[in-house]
Write a structure and sequence with these properties.
Layout: H1 2-16, H2 26-43, H3 46-51, H4 53-62
Helix pairs in contact: 1-2
């Protein structure tokens, strides 16, 4: 779950980064992160990702700590 959420933020951060990020003020950065969160909440299945958490933990237990398939948003399938 964490890896998926981080990937969503990183993807949006990359496309929203200003041309000169070193000139971005802390307030501007905070506003941009808020915008990223709003975008993710509006465009991705955050609730579905959270609801799948316990199911995915059980898959890891069943796989005895081995790899499991990554969470793929239904719109991406």
């Amino acid at each position: 779950m964490h890896e998926t959420a981080v990937a969503w933020v990183r993807r949006r951060e990359t496309v929203s980064q200003p041309l000169r990020p070193w000139k971005e003020t802390p307030a501007e950065y905070a506003a941009r992160l808020r915008s990223i969160c709003q975008y993710i909440n509006a465009n991705f299945d955050v609730e579905g990702l959270c609801r799948k958490f316990l199911e995915r933990v059980q898959l890891v237990v069943d796989a005895e700590g081995g790899r499991i398939k990554p969470y793929i948003h239904p719109m991406c399938q």
